[in-house]
Amino acid sequence: MIVLASVEDVVYDASTVLRIPVLILALAALAVVIVELGGLVVELVRRRRRDSDVLERAAVATRTADSDEARNRALGALRGAASSDAMAATFVRVAGQARGPGAETRIAKSLADYDLQSLRRLERTRMLVRAGPALGLMGTLIPLSPALTGLQAGNVNQLTDNLRVAFSITVLGLLVGAVAFSISLVRDRLYAQDLSDLEFVAALLEEQ
To answer: Measured on CA atoms in the order 177, 183, 189, 191, is the torsion positive or negative?
Structure first.
């Protein structure tokens, strides 16, 4: 019984020590998801100018340019039609690879790298989809022990304070998870469209 009591004390102490880190992590997750939400708004605004006809004209002009000056102008138009800096850089890289040997293989590698870069950006919000509710659950359960202790001792203030923290962190965790899930869904569609545009431009640049 003594050993069991000692183990229980260690578990209780460990969970108590985690209280502040969990609260800090939950607030940090909220800050990150707010930043990601702002980034999504910027991405949506930039994609309002998306036009497949503009992409096609810029890609054809890049392929058929008969001078460095004309090619630079066409590449500028192609970069301007991109919805992100990463996409613009990939456009330029693909345009250069389309003129060299092994163009198909090199272009496929560039497109795959862009896709992986998009997945890395999605990882942040996808992690928050699970981490937010997990932090909320931990932040809910950890204060329950001192709350029950306060209830047993008749300390209403201790009970109230701990329950307030427990319920607040639950709401915070669920909010983080819900917003992160929504951001991930929208970005999945946006990045799939970007990759489709890149493949479209790459196909036009490879035409003879």
So the answer is: negative
| 65-104 tens-digit pLDDT | 777 777 788 788 888 888 888 888 888 888 887 777 777 8
195: burial class by Cβ within 10 Å (0-12, 13-18, 19+)? middle
pTM: 0.81
Instruction: Read off the tokens for 150.
Output: 């306060």
- Cα 27-29-35 angle, rounded to 5 deg: 105
Show the domain range for 56: 2-206
* Length reported for the chain: 208
Count of domains for the chain:
1
Buried b (16+ CB within 10 A) or exposed e, 136-174: bebbbebbeebbeebeeeeeeebbeebbebbebbbebbe
- List Cα–Cα distances, 175 to 100, 169, 199, in angstroms: 50, 10, 36
The alpha carbon dihedral of 61, 67, 68, 70 has a sign of negative
